[in-house]
Amino acid sequence: MDVRKTGMGSSAAMITSLTASLLQFFGVVDLRRDIGGKEEENLSIIHNLAQIVHAAAQGKIGSGFDVASAVYGSIIYQRFRPEPLQFVMEDDVTGDELLSAVTDTGLWLELTAQRIQLPAPMDLMMGDISDGSSSTSMVSPEAGE
Question: In 3-state terms, what secondary structure has residue 37?
């Protein structure tokens, strides 16, 4: 069965929601309320772990936009540098190394996920024209040329 990639972020949304649910279940984060101003810290943990899990599922570190938007909503996005995170793709990476990758803010310094809201009554719609798409080619600087 040949299933084309649509580029709509469904795998990122699924992985992000599963990651957040498991972190909530095991008490790592509390998303029910903003306890002591930790909402951003909780979202950062979910984001970082979901990025790593999504990379493992995809077999590569992608643009990260789909995971970031699944965590933060509508955003202006600047990608984190993937090179410092390449080690998470190795077969022999340890749990301690993965935990460090999630919590080491230095690895995520260049990430920007600034929340935005479209002005009313503007709506943004996307459609799949059954040819599939690649997020990387759609957001590359050359795409607008």
Answer: coil
